[in-house]
Amino acid sequence: MEMDKKLVVSSSPHIRSIDSVQSVMTDVLIALFPVALMAVLLFGYQALLTMAISVATAMLVEALWLKKKDIFSDGSAAVTGLLFAMVLPPAAPWWLVVIGTAMAIIIGKQVFGGIGYNIFNPALVGRAIVAVSWGSHMVGTVWSSPEPFAFGADISAVTTATPLAGEAQAQAVTLAQLFVGNVPGCLGETSAFALLVGAAWLFYKGHIDWRVPVGFIGTVFVLGILLGGGFYENHLLTGLFHVLAGGVMLGALFMATDMVTSPVTSIGKLIFGIGCGLITILIRLWGTMPEGVTFAILMMNALTPIIDNFTVPKQFGGVKKSA
Amino acid sequence: MGSIVFKGGVHPDYRKEITASLAVTKMALPSKVVIPLQQHIGAPCEPLEGIEVGAEVKTGQRIAESSGFVSAPIHASISGKITEIGPYNHPLGRPVKAVTIESDGRDQWVDDLKPAGDPSSLTPQEIRKVVQEAGIVGLGGATFPAHVKLSPPEEKPIDVVIINGAECEPYLTADHRVMLEKPEKIVFGLKMMIKALGAEKGIIGIEDNKADAIQAMEQAVAEEDNITINRLHTKYPQGAEKMLILVTTGRKVPSGGLPMDVGVVNHNVGTAVAICDAIREGKPLIERVVTITGEGINRPANMLIRVGTIVSNVLETCGGLKEETRKLILGGPMMGLAQPDADLPVIKGTSGILALTDDDVYLAESSPCIRCAKCVDACPVQLVPTAIAQAAEHGLFKKAEKLHALDCFECGCCAYVCPAKIPLTQLIRIAKAEIVKAKKK
To answer: What's the pLDDT at A320?
Structure first.
C-alpha cells in the first residue's frame, strides 16, 4: 500500500485533548480580563498604561532571553507580566514596572530553566524585588485613591495608605467598598468581585482546584476571627475584612494557584493554601509590614516540592501510605 | 444502580456515531489467513502433529496448542492448504510464528463439532473444558485465556460474574453491536460462567451512551432473577477491570491483586457470546466482531472477521484507506497499538481497526511540565503520573516504583489530558518495564 509509508507509529494514547500550555495560559489571561477592566474603571489610564508596559516588557524580555521570534509563544510571559502589574500601585513609575517585570521573567523564571522549572511565582519574585529595592514607591502612603469612571484623571496626585495600614484606615472603608474594589490598593487586588468573576472561568475550565483558594481564604477568615481582635465592628466581620482587604483574594485565586509553583497532589494543595493563609495572617498581625500575601506565597512556594513528596496519594486499592 | 462513579478518568470525543448504527456484516471469506500461534497472554502454542506445509486443514480444526495451563489452543479459521509456517508480523510489534492457510474456497468445517449437551446438566468442570478446548480468550483485548478465569483457586470463592459492556474506548462499537444483536447469547454465556464458578449473580455493566444496548440487554434478562443490568455514567476508562468492579459492586480490587481477591470474575460481552457458541454448537473461537472505523476509512463497518484475516484485506473490503490517513491502530485510540503497515493478521484480541488522519494525529514536540496536575486528577488509580514520568526520564526507577508505577494499567488518561503533550503513559511504561526487569535479576 502506497500510504503505508506515511503511517506514524507511536505509543498510545493516540488522541490528545485540545488543551495546550498556550490554551491554558490564554484562559488565565481571559480570567484576568474582568480584573483588568475593573482596574481601568477604578484607576483610569494609568492602570492601563502600567499593565501595557508590564505585559509588553515581559513578552519582550522572554523572547530576547530565549532568542525566540514568537513573542506570545506559550503565553506564560504575558501572564507573568499581567500578574505583576496586578500587584503594583496603579500609578507606578514606568521604570519600576519595566525593571520589576524584567526581574520577574529573568530572576523569577528563566534562571531556573524557564517555564515549568521555576520554584517561585515569577510575578511575586518581581514584586518582592521592587518592594525591597524601591520601598518608597511600594510601601506606606503610595496608594492612589480610585477615581471610578474617570479614565483621564491623574490618580498619582493624591495618595494614601491601604485599609490594612491601621485601624483608622480600616474603619474608613466599608465591606461593600472592599468587595467592589473602590479602595486604595494594588491595581488588581482591590475588587474581590472582579477576581471572583475571573476565577470562575478558571474553575469552569478546570485549570484551578478549589483546595488552594479555599484553604487560603478559609484560613485567613478563621484566623482573622480568632486573632484579629474584632477591631472591625465584631470578630466575624474582622475575619471578613481580612479576606477582602489587601491581596488575599488576588493571591488566593491567581497567585497561589499558579500551577508551576504549587503542589500537584490534592492534599498538598490544601496544605499549601492553609499555609499561605497562616503566614499571611502572621505577617499582617505581628510582622513589620501591613500586608503579607506576597511573602506568604513565596515561602509556601519554597515548600512545594517537599509538600508534594509527603502527600503522594494512596493508590487505588492501596493499603499503606508511602512516598 | 450505577450510582458509584470512579475517581479520575476523562471524557474524550467518542466518535462512536461513525459505526454505532451499522449492523454487523459477515466479511467475505478471505483467500488466505495467517494465524499466529500466540494470540493470548501465556504460553505460546506449537503446531500439532501433521500441521505442516502442504497439509490440508478444515475450518475449526485445532492446529496448535500448548501444554501450559495458562494458554489457549488455536484453530484453523478457514479450510484449505497450509502454505507456510514461520514468523509473521503481529499486532504486538514483533514477528510471531504463524500458520498460513490458502483457502480452498469451500469453508469446510470439521465434522466432530458437537454441542456440549444439555446446558442444565453440565458440570463446572465440563463447562471449563469446553471453554478451554474452544480456544476462548478475553475478547476485550487483554486476551487472557477464559478458562483460567473460570478456574479460581478454592480459597478465592467467586460470588459475582461481571460482563463488561462498557466499551469505553472511543470509536469502537463492536461490543455495542453484539449487545444489540446477540443479547440472548450473552445472557446464556453469562449463565454458564455463573455455573462454572458457582457464583450467585451476574451483572452486566453498560455505559449510558448506549441506551439501545441497555434496553436490549434489560429485555434479555427480564426472566433472570440473579442477573442485573447496570447503567454506568459514561467515562473512560470505565471498562478497565478495577473501575468496572468498583462501579458495579462497590468492591476495590487491592493494589497488585486480581478481581478474584474480591470475589469477582469479569468477562467481555464478546467472550460471553464465544462461550455460548462453544457450548451450544461446539464452535471454537475462529472469528470475531471488529469495528473498522476512523476518519481515514472510506466505508466504516462492524464486521464478523475470521481470525488470521490480513488487515489490508479487511481495509480493501471497506473501500481502502483515505489519502490523509496517518495512523493505523489495532484496538481503540486510547490503548490500541499503532502499526507501521497493514500486512498483519486480525487476531482473537483485535477489537478494532482504526485509521486516524492528520487532524487527529498529534505530532508536535512536548514542552516542560507546567505541573497543572491534570494528570493527577485524571489518573483512575490515583497515581501522580508526572512524578513517575519524571523519575523515569532521569532513570530513577526505584523512585518510580515507590510512586506505585506498577499500579498503572496504561489507560492513557494522563497523556491524553497533558497540555504540555508529554508522553506520560509511554514514560511510565518504560519505568514499569525497568522495574520488572530489576525484580527478575
So the answer is: 55
Q: CB distance B335–A12 less than 8 Å?
A: yes
Residues with Cβ < 8 Å from B363, sequence gap 6 or more?
A8
Residue B140: what pLDDT?
Answer: 87
Nearest chain A residue to B170 by CA distance is: A15
* Residue of B245, B404, B417 to mutate, testing the A interface (most A Cβ within 10 Å of its Cβ): B404
C-alpha of B355 from chain center = 18
The CA-based diameter of chain B, rounded to the nearest angstrom, is: 64
pLDDT tens across A202-226, in order?
999 999 999 999 999 999 999 999 9
Domain ranges of chain B: 114-281, 374-440
Of B284, B308, B280, B303, nearest in space to B109 by CA: B284
C-alpha B36/C-alpha B61 separation (Å) is 15
Do the Cβ atoms of A21 and B415 come within 8 Å? no
Cβ B13–A15 below 8 Å, yes or no? yes
Judge residue A157's burial from the number of C-beta atoms within 10 Å of its C-beta, 0-12 exposed, 13-18 middle, 19 or more buried: exposed
Interacting residues of B262 by C-beta distance below 8 A, sequence separation 6+: B245, B249, B251, B252, B253, B254
- B242: nearest CB among A4, A20, A317: A317
Domains of chain A: 22-310 (1.10.3430)
Q: Which strands, in side-by-side order, build the sheet including B24-26?
A: B24-26, B301-306, B287-293, B352-357, B325-330, B337-339
Q: B38: distance to nearest CA of chain A, Å?
A: 22
CB contact under 8 Å between B382 and A206, yes or no, is no
What's the complex ipTM? 0.93
CB atoms within 10 A of CB A281: 25
Q: Who among A16, A113, A261 is closest to B416 (CB)?
A: A16
* Mode of pairing for the β-strands spanning B160-165 and B96-103: unpaired
Q: Which CATH number fits domain B114-281: 3.40.50.300, 3.40.50.11540, 2.60.120.380, 3.40.50.720?
A: 3.40.50.11540
* A50 Cα to chain B: minimum distance (Å): 27
- B305 close to B288: Cβ distance less than 8 angstroms: yes
> Residue B3 — pLDDT band, cuts 50, 70, 90?
low
What distance in Å separates the CA atoms of residue A105 and residue A258, rounded to the nearest whole number?
15
Using CB atoms, pick whichever of A115, A117, A319 lies closest to residue B254.
Answer: A319
Grid cell at residue A240? 471578613
User: CB distance A318–B369 less than 8 Å?
Assistant: no
Contact B334 A14 (CB under 8 A): yes
* CB proximity under 8 Å: A 118-177 to B: none
A305 close to B (CB below 8 A): no
